[in-house]
Specification:
Layout: H1 3-32, H2 35-61, H3 76-105, H4 113-140, H5 143-169, H6 175-203, H7 210-221, E1 226-236, E2 241-249, H8 255-272, E3 276-285
Parallel strand pairs: 2-3
Antiparallel strand pairs: 1-2
Helix pairs in contact: 1-2, 1-4, 2-3, 2-5, 3-5, 3-6, 4-5, 5-6
Length: 286
């Protein structure tokens, strides 16, 4: 199963799981008149949006090269992961506002065994989804999977905060709800900013990292006829890169031999680096 099929499966699973959790939370929240649970249920709607963005972004990114998009549609992964990062930031800001108001007004959260059970069930489901998407991300390195993984992890913390506030309310301690909410919302904001920055960098054509460039240069210099690597440039086309090299060779070499060296280097680099889609080598006779 390729990376696109894997991500599609994760997106569909996320949509179904979050829809189920939304219905469960909203029903229990309304029956128990718990504002915390009702608010958490609408967070699940946000999770449905994130999973839907994963599904759509992956579908577009899986489209192969065509006449209008010569290097494919890989950047769609980062466009839609940016949408997810923005939704995480919006939720984080809303949570921070609500938590501060709750702390100021000392809002009371009323204990209910049903709230505890729903929280425990939600945490279990979200932990399973988190570890599932984390395993897929570590294997495929798809930023949409990373976005879903972060979303599931954030929900574990969010619902744990709701659970904590419900349990403390049993002891007549109500400030925990606001305090935990502030901590969780700040965590949301930091993870959202990090994901936004990662997506933004790729969309703005960030180059290969310095370490990878150095490895490519060393690989080129191992060829006996290569005198110098003059330039190395790269441009991202999603999770992979296009690399353009300018190398110096002896002016005494014939054209056929020079092109043979260029072709050999191109093949070696694309074979050695999974994140390199294509290499163009320009020969400069010295």
């Amino acid at each position: 199963m390729n990376r696109f099929e894997v991500t599609k499966k994760a997106g569909i699973l996320g949509i179904l799981a979050n829809l189920f959790l939304f219905l469960l939370k909203i029903i229990v929240g309304l029956l128990s008149k718990s504002q915390a649970m009702i608010a958490d249920s609408f967070n699940s709607i946000g999770d449905v949006f994130a999973s839907f963005m994963t599904f759509i972004g992956n579908k577009i990114a899986s489209v192969s090269d065509d006449e209008d998009h010569n290097f494919g549609h890989g950047k769609a992964e980062y466009i839609f992961s940016m949408f997810i990062s923005i939704s995480i930031l919006v939720i984080g800001i809303k949570l921070l506002y609500d938590a501060i108001i709750s702390l100021i007004l000392n809002n009371k959260v009323y204990f209910s065994i049903y709230l505890v059970l729903v929280c425990l069930f939600t945490i279990t489901i979200k932990l399973i989804l988190y570890f599932y998407t984390k395993r897929l991300y570590n294997k495929e390195k798809n930023i949409l999977l990373k976005s879903s993984m972060l979303d599931h992890r954030n929900d574990v913390f969010l619902t744990s905060g709701v659970l904590l506030s419900v349990l403390f309310s049993k002891l007549g301690i109500y400030f925990v709800d606001g305090l935990v909410g502030i901590i969780i919302s700040i965590w949301f904001l930091l993870s959202g900013i990090k994901l936004f920055k990662e997506s933004y960098n790729v969309l703005m054509d960030i180059s290969l990292d310095k370490e990878t460039k150095e490895k490519i240069i060393k690989m080129c210099m191992k060829e006996d006829d290569v005198l110098l690597v003059e330039d190395i440039h790269s441009v991202s086309i999603g999770y992979k890169y296009i690399v353009v090299l300018t190398i110096s060779v002896s002016g005494n070499l014939d054209t056929f031999t020079s092109h043979k060296i260029a072709t050999l280097i191109e093949k070696k680099i694309t074979k050695s680096f999974d994140n390199v889609k294509e290499v163009f080598v320009h020969i400069n006779p010295v």
